[in-house]
Amino acid sequence: MNFTGLSLDQAPPISAPVRFFLTAPLFAMAAAILIFFFDPALLMSRFSLETIVVTHLFTIGFIAMVMLGALQQMLPVLAGVSLPKASLVATSSHALISLGLVLMSIGLLQSIKVVIFIATLSLGLGFLILLGAIVLAMRKVEFLTPTIRGMRWAIGFALVIVMLGMHLLSSYGTGVMGETHLGFANMHAVLAIFGFAGILIIGVAFQVIPMFYVTPPFHEKSQKYLVLAVVASLVLWALLSFVADDLAWIAKVILVTLFALFGYLVIEKMNQRKRPIADITVYYWRLSGVMAILGSLVWLSSGFIEEDVLSFVGVIIGGGFLMSVMSGMLYKIIPFLVWFHLNGMGYMSIPSMGEMVHKKMALAQFVLFVVTLAFFASAFWIPVMMKMGAVALFVSMVLLEINLVLAYKNYGETCKRKPDFDMSMMGG
Fold first, then answer.
1. CATH-assigned architecture of domain 15-409
2. Buried b (16+ CB within 10 A) or exposed e, 172-193
3. In Å, how far from its chain's centre is CA 426?
4. CA 405 to CA 362: how far, in whole Å?
């Protein structure tokens, strides 16, 4: 791996992104508990309040938490710019988003209007504080790489989905849902999955996969046009959905083709690694590539078969594609942050990134995650599998949390020991 040019001075305090990372598995555990006790039939409907709560515990509580934490670290490392007031922004946005998500779950499930309104404000403010800080930082970027361009588009879509999300959530507080509610709900979901999460993953993959896995770079045309093509297809889909819904399938076909192509490229890069030894993150990237292809095809088919298949789509794309990438990268990002900060502080005898992850526990967690996906996918036909999937998911997330905490523990322990401190790092 080549870390030339990375500066500790540009990076936020390690606690800023790590608080997001360590919170993510906790919300997934909460989702698992609710799934276990909910009636499986209710979770098959995408419009039930139970489904909405569980979905957002995954999308906001796990996926968005990991992405927001990663963005705080990637901007200084990959773009050379730092967030203004990084510690204050991280602390306040994390607290507001966490509080808002808890209140949203309680408010929707208990039908408490005032709690729903507070949740709307808390979530909206939490996201806008961090996204606003990222926008301000990005204005200082001098050299636009494909990754930075992807991050810019992703943040743009994030701002749109936050506004849509606040509108949709507040409508549950007022009890007034206009004719556009369903259309906005569909747009919120598609732009969140493919616009924010999807584009960010594509953009980051251009930089991270060759850097961490020593692969050939993505083809120049892929880096130049893939994100732009996704943006164009999303805009086309949004326009057609409102003005000519019977033609929206055209944009949908283009969009799923692009993500299936990305899934193929990810698998190809994992097979082109110059280091033959595969760690747990390689398994996660391969799984996400397969699920990106499968999920895109299933989502495309949802326009032609029964509507409830969208619950199945959520498992494949949300769990198989998005959560796989996030889980895998957590095993890279936290050890990298620990190594990066300790190295920058001048400590020499520190564990390598690979030594910070308990390999057998990580493998057990991955296997349980795959089992979870299998249970949830089969629950579409065999509802009892939903509860089995909830158990597998809970144990998987417990193991993930333990693995991450153990990796992060190296930072505090090393700072206390102060091993082989290199005074040259301090200019001595």
1. Up-down Bundle (1.20)
2. bbeeeeeeeeeebbbbbbbbbb
3. 36
4. 12
Cβ atoms < 10 Å from Cβ of 303: 12
pLDDT of 54-68, one tens digit each? Answer: 999 999 999 999 999
Regarding pTM above 0.85, the answer is: yes
Q: Which residues are CB-neighbours of 187 under 8 A, at least 6 positions away?
A: 164, 238, 241
Q: Where are the alpha helices (DSSP H) in 272-384?
A: 280-301, 309-313, 324-344, 359-378
In terms of Cβ atoms closer than 10 Å to its own Cβ (0-12, 13-18, 19+), residue 48 is middle
Tokens 């301000």 correspond to 136
The mean pLDDT of 2-23, rounded to a whole number, is 73
Averaged pLDDT, 128-154: 90
**pLDDT over 50 (residue 423):** no
CA distances from residue 138 to 21, 72, 132, 144, 149 in whole angstroms, order as listed: 22, 11, 10, 10, 10
